[in-house]
């Protein structure tokens, strides 16, 4: 017979083994899904790296004049010496050096960001393409899908209908027949 003291030990060992297995399985999943690991994207063969959105990022945007970090993080020796020179008086810097300092912090100027692109041509071309394609579909449907026009829409039929309505004197006070001169045989 098992003593009461041994039963809790077995239960604790079983519980501990379950926790260790759960911990190992979670760590295994975390190792394959961390942001630093490169993964194949949905079987396309391309390798992508996930971006860590918790660190400061650089982007050129008109509504955000100062990005979170400079454009160039790693500086060459020439860039480092230029940064040291920046700490001194700016009158001693040449125009090219000032421009190089600007390019260390920013990728594009506001003028370069505002420069018009040719994207409107692509959008307009796409719109015209789809309008033309829709017109071709409607034309195809008109000839091959829809039934022919009824005979009541022909000009001859409508002329006979008008003559019949005049002979019947339809709406003679203010309507159709009121606008016809029966003595002269023409419209008033």
From TrEMBL:
<protein>
    <recommendedName>
        <fullName>Cytochrome c oxidase subunit 4</fullName>
    </recommendedName>
</protein>
<dbReference type="GO" id="GO:0005743">
    <property type="term" value="C:mitochondrial inner membrane"/>
</dbReference>
<dbReference type="InterPro" id="IPR036639">
    <property type="entry name" value="Cyt_c_oxidase_su4_sf"/>
</dbReference>
<comment type="function">
    <text>Component of the cytochrome c oxidase, the last enzyme in the mitochondrial electron transport chain which drives oxidative phosphorylation.</text>
</comment>
<comment type="similarity">
    <text>Belongs to the cytochrome c oxidase IV family.</text>
</comment>
<dbReference type="InterPro" id="IPR013288">
    <property type="entry name" value="Cyt_c_oxidase_su4"/>
</dbReference>
<feature type="transmembrane region" description="Helical">
    <location>
        <begin position="123"/>
        <end position="143"/>
    </location>
</feature>
<dbReference type="GO" id="GO:0045277">
    <property type="term" value="C:respiratory chain complex IV"/>
</dbReference>
<keyword id="KW-1133">Transmembrane helix</keyword>
<dbReference type="GO" id="GO:0006123">
    <property type="term" value="P:mitochondrial electron transport, cytochrome c to oxygen"/>
</dbReference>
<dbReference type="Pfam" id="PF02936">
    <property type="entry name" value="COX4"/>
</dbReference>
<keyword id="KW-0999">Mitochondrion inner membrane</keyword>
<dbReference type="InterPro" id="IPR004203">
    <property type="entry name" value="Cyt_c_oxidase_su4_fam"/>
</dbReference>
<keyword id="KW-0496">Mitochondrion</keyword>
<comment type="pathway">
    <text>Energy metabolism; oxidative phosphorylation.</text>
</comment>
<comment type="subunit">
    <text>Component of the cytochrome c oxidase (complex IV, CIV), a multisubunit enzyme composed of 14 subunits. The complex is composed of a catalytic core of 3 subunits MT-CO1, MT-CO2 and MT-CO3, encoded in the mitochondrial DNA, and 11 supernumerary subunits COX4I, COX5A, COX5B, COX6A, COX6B, COX6C, COX7A, COX7B, COX7C, COX8 and NDUFA4, which are encoded in the nuclear genome.</text>
</comment>
<keyword id="KW-0472">Membrane</keyword>
<keyword id="KW-0812">Transmembrane</keyword>
């Amino acid at each position: 017979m098992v003593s009461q003291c041994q039963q809790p030990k077995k239960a604790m060992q079983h519980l501990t083994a379950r926790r260790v297995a759960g911990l190992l399985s979670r760590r295994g999943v975390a190792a394959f899904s961390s942001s630093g690991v490169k993964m194949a994207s949905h079987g396309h063969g391309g390798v992508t790296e996930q971006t860590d959105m918790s660190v400061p990022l650089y982007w050129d945007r008109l509504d955000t004049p100062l990005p979170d970090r400079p454009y160039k993080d790693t500086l060459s020796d020439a860039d480092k010496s230029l940064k040291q020179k920046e700490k001194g008086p700016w009158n001693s810097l040449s125009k090219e050096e000032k421009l190089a300092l600007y390019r260390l912090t920013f990728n594009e100027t506001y003028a370069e960001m505002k420069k018009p692109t040719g994207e409107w041509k692509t959008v307009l071309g796409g719109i015209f393409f789809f309008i033309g394609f829709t017109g071709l579909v409607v034309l195809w449907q008109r000839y091959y899908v829809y039934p022919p026009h009824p005979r009541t829409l022909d000009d001859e039929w409508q002329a006979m209908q008008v003559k019949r309505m005049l002979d019947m004197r339809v709406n003679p006070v203010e309507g159709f027949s009121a606008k016809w001169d029966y003595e002269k045989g023409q419209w008033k």
